[in-house]
Specification:
Low-confidence stretches: 143-155
Strand content: 35-45%
Shape: globular
Helix content: under 10%
Oligomer: single chain
């Protein structure tokens, strides 16, 4: 594993919800990423045996494809709203599959979240995306943690 940055132990990820962190692009632009357990079952835990006992995880840039200024994980103790293996846009209700990032509900139907490469080794999640540099845990503006507009959904 080259140039990987340790993020968080899988055991520390919420069962339902997400973990948020900030990365920077080569241009210097900082962006938020959400990391969550998926319903894909388990992944190789790196223990060198035949057991796969670490929950599968996925990471996505933290914005709705329909309206990119809307964050999926807006901070707080819970993280992103999720249901049935999907992350839900809190403003529009678009539902993105946590395993594939694909959305089949309006208004973002047919669009896919921007993936971020992560890997699980020995029960720890690492950022392995060569195009991104880990900056810090949490979001860009953790002071208020809320998007610029209000939600239209009550979840």
């Amino acid at each position: 594993m080259t140039d990987a940055t340790e993020l968080v132990a899988v055991s520390e990820l919420p069962e339902a919800g997400s973990y948020r962190f900030t990365v920077s692009e080569p241009s210097g632009l900082e962006e938020e990423v959400l990391l969550a357990r998926t319903d894909a079952g388990t992944t190789d835990d790196g223990a060198g045996d035949d057991t796969d006992d670490t929950p599968a995880v996925a990471a996505w840039k933290n914005f709705c494809m329909h309206e990119p200024d809307q964050r999926l994980d807006r901070g707080g103790d819970v993280g992103a709203a999720m249901r049935d293996g999907q992350v839900i846009c809190p403003r529009h209700g678009a539902m993105f599959d946590l395993e594939t990032g694909y959305c089949d509900t309006d208004p973002a139907a047919g669009q896919t979240l921007v993936s971020v490469d992560v890997e699980v080794r020995d029960g720890v999640v690492y950022l392995t995306d060569e195009a991104l540099t880990f900056e810090h845990e949490g979001g860009l503006d953790d002071d208020d943690g809320m998007p610029s507009s209000t939600s239209h959904l009550g979840l």
